[in-house]
Amino acid sequence: MASRLSANGRLVDIGSHSLALYSHGPEPSSFADPVVVFVSGIASDALNWQAVTRLLGSSVRSYSYDRSGYRNSESSPIAPTAENVALELSLLLDKASIKNPLIFVGHSWAGVLINEYFALKGTEQVAGLVLVDANHETAPLVVNVNDPTLWTVAAGVDVWVAWGTEAEHKLTQEEWETFRSAEATDKYKLIADTEEENYASSFETLRRKGLAQRQPLLGNKPVYVIAGTRSRDWRRLHDAGVAKGNGTEEQRSHVREMIRTVDEKTTGLMKEFLKLSTKGELVFATDSGHFVQLTQPDMVVDGVKIRTSEDVDTNTLELHLVRLMNAGVAGFVVHGSNGEAFHLSHEERSAMICCAADIVHQEGHETRMPLIAGCGAQSTRKPILLCRDAFKSGASHALLLPPSYYGGLITDEKVFQYSHAVADASPIPVVIYNLPTAAAGRDLSSDTILHIAKHPNIVGVKLTCGNTGKHARVADKAPAGFFAAGGSADFILQGQVVGANGTISGLANVAPRACVRITELAAEGTVAEARRLQAVVARGEWIAIQTGFVLLFFHPLCSNCQRNSQAPGILQLFFIPFVEVGQGAVQLLELFIKLGHQVFQTINFRLVFVPDFHNFLGVELPSANIAASMP
């Protein structure tokens, strides 16, 4: 007998019978917003996701459902093989008109079920994947969860009590009682037993489809894998069984050996799931056994939110900034010229600056490390307001790009008047930005720059034009204390030769140490080695340009080029946590160049254009949220 359908539930006719679908959270604001679909493991219905959906709250739309034969769903006329379950899931999503990008969250057997769904429907609609101690297709070849000796020792044991789930679950008492009551029904026992009969064969059936040979099946779509601590469950089963007098000593010894090796084997299986995508992350639920969603639902929520939130990810930004400082950068540019700030609200812009300022101060670098905030706009009034806001948020300097909307009407004299008007009102020093491609082609001459530089509150210029002759003239004739920074990793060494104080470069976010090292070699007089490294960096810059990598710039800051100069060099940053340390810097940059096209041509830009990058190129990295990458 079916239970009473809750207010958030409805029956969806999939043709042969109806399935119970439950909606959680607000309706998506558009068809572009991802929604979450929970897929339960074997012998499980929608009830085991209740703690997760409650914690998700209003952050995202999600759906759970009862598979055929469970609780409020009708029985299916076909056997519950993994292929048939995947077919019914696809029919459910279609008949329920769920057309949004899908983030699948699957537990246990759902690792097989979701892959069967991929085999059936493809991955075009899939936006991400969260796997909760899921079954890999090779799992039975590595770990036998149905080992008869284990269950001989655990005979007569209430697994929910023995595992500690009854004491440690995060459901409400009413939810837990409903969960346990559902398992006691004849309807549940019938479908659970039938699924068990089809469980073992489902792995070989999936393996025969050869999905493992077509990786990364999800391309660069994020995959978040949570590994439970299986030894925890088995140890508790063993102890409870021994307390009941179950098993011979030989059988108990066999189970103890299983316990000793299972976590290592499970970790290997979980790592196989990372091959599904170029962006995979593996985390460990050390305080849970197999049912992580019941005992540590917050870990599942973390995986979902990383994939759905476009809020500024300040935690990852902080990690990235510390990494850059450790690589030797000299400062940060937040909100530069590549369009990032236009995708953020006023509050988000301020949050980015505040976050960077806090890190600079916490790390004890406030006396030497500039924090430059982009404040350019198409009027005089707005840049002044942005400069004031940047100052309040903790920025030390403002980066000012000339207006360009009516390029033909903006003369050098008007740029001079504009720059001085902003500098007059700005509470922080101003750095002029010469970037012709972002200013309707206007390329400020050295004469104009030197004329502008006479203002006492204008203290530097970023030259992205690439004209080293202009750079030499400005560096030679500018007022004392004025710094002339290059604006691209393409010409770090060339800039050093003609007197640059540093470079502000987007590529420094990818390879900060390599960029900094060029300046160090130049200062040491090791020109040949500096030239070789400059060639590698320039190739990396070219890959970034060719692949549209520039769209990812977020302008934090970066690298000290001459620590002892009055105006330390600055390297603008880029937002990919790409690990490169010491002698590994060049090798990793070479790898970036080699894989640049094949990796970045597959980027799926959505709304704010920037996907998150973590575990990039197989290196464990923090997750970078979409909005955080676009200050």
TrEMBL record:
Domain of life: Eukaryota
Residue intervals of the AB hydrolase-1 domain: 36-302
Protein name, UniProt field: 4-hydroxy-2-oxoglutarate aldolase
GO MF annotations, alphabetized: 4-hydroxy-tetrahydrodipicolinate synthase activity
One Pfam family named in its UniProt record: DHDPS
